[in-house]
Predict the structure.
Amino acid sequence: MRTISLKVNGIVKEVAVEDNELLLNVLREKLGVTSVKAACWRGECGLCTVLLDGIPVKSCMTLAVEADGKEVITAEGLYSDERAKKLMESFVKHGAMQCGFCTPAFVVTSHYVLSKNPDIDGEELKKELNGVICRCGTYYQIYEAVKDAEKYYKKEKV
Amino acid sequence: MTYKNVGKEVPQADSWLKVTGTLKYAFDINFPGTLYAKLVTSKLPHAKIKSIDISEALKVKGVINVATGKDFPYRLGLYLSDRDVLAVDKVRWIGHPVAAVIADSLEAAEEAAEKVKVEYEPLEPVLTVERALEKDAPLIHEKLGEYRVFPGFHPVPGTNIANVFELKHGDVENALKEEDTIIIEETYRLPQISHVTMETQNVLAWWRFDDYVEVWTSIQSPFATRYLMADALKLPVNRIIIHAPPAGGGFGLKAGLGWEPLVALLSKFAGRKPVKLVLSRAEQMTSAPARDGFIAKVKAGFKRDGRFVAYKAEFYLDAGAYADYTINVARTAGYSADGAYDIPNVHVTSYAVYTNKIPTTAMRGFGHPENHWALELTLDRAASVLGIDPVEIRRKNLLKPGESVRATGERVREDEGDPQKVLSVLAQAIDLNHVERASEPWKIRAKGIALLVKAPSQPPNAGASAVVKLNEDGTIDVLTGNGSMGQGTPTSLAILAAEAFGVPLEKIKINQLEMVSTDTNPYTWQTVGSRGLFSDGIALLRAIEDAKNQIKETASRVFKVPVDDVEISEGYAYSKTHPWIRKEIREFAMGYTYPDGTTVGSPVIGRGSYAPILNTFLDANGHGSNTVFHTYGGTGVELEIDLLTGEVKVLRAVQVYDVGKAIDPLLVKGQMDGGFIMGLGSALFEQLKFGEDGKVLNPNLITYYVPHFEDMTASMESYIIETPQKDGPLGARGVGEHVMVAVAPAIANAIFRATGVKINELPITAEKLWKAIKEQKPELIDKALKSFFEEGIKEVEQI
């Protein structure tokens, strides 16, 4: 057991963790951040994706101790980001979700992708989002939603 | 009819909770002090349990208790009580839960599970349908004759046949014998596939100190589960409280009875503390049910002009170790085997067969992905032999609403949809006979279509009910039993409610968005079969009518006009003859109170319910009336086959469905597009692979590949047709499952049409297709290789 410090969605948390404990478990079970989902627990589905110091990582493949001193942002944390909120609105408008279990991971990942490159080519975008699985098959709607939200990220750049 | 809310593109009502990840699934619900359960599963496919030693497991720090099958001597099941809670006396597949550990941490439970020692006496495993049906095959369920059976099902005790269903219509043998009948004979197969709901099955249960059992679970069938649990555990129905939060995907996996009885019993076994079981992906794909494997032996007869005159088929569903839901899958595959076609002579026998493999259950459209794989491929094979266009052969044989009779003897309703229009729209959109050149000379471009029709497969009395309450401010609370799993029905029900009540959609709160609870929500049979919008929708409209009548009653007294002079619209009750006499409906919500305090009327609460009328069980010939509505649809694809690798890339997809009335076109299109993706997965990638001992070899999302983002087609067109269903809610019928059914047949038909290569078994992997081309049309590969090298030489020359 050791104590690590995580800034989760803007709030600094001190939490005692085992050396082999996953970031996923710490977020969900110790900190109650249930927007982080899990569907395979071994890096195959991408549903546990969070931003760790701004970079998307699979929290089931990340040890909690690796995140010590870092910032974690999840879907609910993105709500306070104006661009991300517009991105979420675009998801809503386009019906880019069915059961919604993968939706937070898609929001987090596409926010990262658009922040990095709001002019992203369509095929490139599909590649970037290929790491998250949606069994309901809402890929078409997610694609439209993300494409439609590019404009908000472009504005920010200017 | 113009509508204010119906027909508009409305996002799901819980969308903002979903994008922020704050919608609570069963997976997210936990109480302080909850204990964790871990399954101990069988390593052998078929064996007697000689002994189970839990002594070492009990020594692990944090372990509360370990349960084995003998602790829970109950039989479970929906249509057939063939399931145990944990294996008793013998194990029936690799993955069969034998024991369950309860501990204060998942780690302790996992450690202890490793230390449970089970001693087995191996029995001969039965791993194929063929072996299972042999006279000397070992019995997987020796006590089949003692199980509780739902009416209309026919297990065969003393064999491995969990159910046999027969459909007879006309005289098949004679029709096949006629001289001018052209025979198409094929054997088709489908592998077991996994539902892969992103949220794995998980249950939190608490056997309370007052002997009420409270359960939070990811499930489609809270009411059926409550009843079946009560029946099995010998408890009064209302002592079991099932809470069903929105499910992270259902697809039939979460229909019927799941892990609830086990976890509830574990809670009692652990001193009545709450216990949670969350299946890992591997457990989900080895210990929980999959979709059945399927074999169809088909003999079809056609006349020269394309008339489909005889269809003889034997279906064998590999049900695995338990078939409590699959017997209905087999029955359904049987009674609907004639699909969208008017075939005068039909004889289908459909068997659900036990094997020592992963058990099976319902999956999206069950029975129909199976029987349409056989039927729709057969039509294209016949079209090819007869030299008729695939569109024409279908046009000629489609059911005629108002005229035709199905093989079950059920008449085809006048208003059940427009199959000809479905076909025409599909044919026009896909334009079968105009195929462009492929992107490379060693590739072939191809187009194909398939149709389907499907009704909900449910008992004749599958009911639904609804309650609406008018609040003080004129907002309205809607309660039905229909659960949310991404299909969007609760949102569509809210739209229906707004329309019927004549209020803006914002005024409607549909309570099952967060949870369906058996002790607060009104009953519905299950959220399955694409029945929700229709069944719960009708119940809801009746409840709204009831609530409106209560408002009218009070208003008539206040307005001093007859009741039938009162109308409700735009949030007002008013006199039709004196329209200036009107009041907002909110003023009647709790009864109408005059300034001096006297009150007329009382709080408005409407109730409505629905059950199918004139539905019956099917008789020994498969005859009867067992459906409430049918939905017709079809899929068209344009694809490219790489002849050098066998790889198929679908470029364009067309979906056409006659949904009666699209209450919310955004959600309907979402289903069509998403259903295409799921169909694509089953067509090209998905298959549970079994080792020689029946063990699932690919229980993970790498080796069991489901469609990813990059698999989406470049073009996806979904067309909605609206031929109103007169008894449907505002004309609507269901479509949630149908949308995946025709995808695989359309793809196989495209490949066959372009290459003449028959693929009778899914999935159409690159390896399988290449081998089939090599076997059936080697000249195509030779030609492709030649052009590949020629291109290469050209490129070299250019350098």
Summary: Chain B has three domains: 15-20+462-610, 31-123+201-278, 290-458+616-778. Residues 31-123+201-278 of chain B form a domain with the Aldehyde Oxidoreductase; domain 3 fold (CATH 3.90.1170.50). Chain B is about 25% helix and 25% strand.
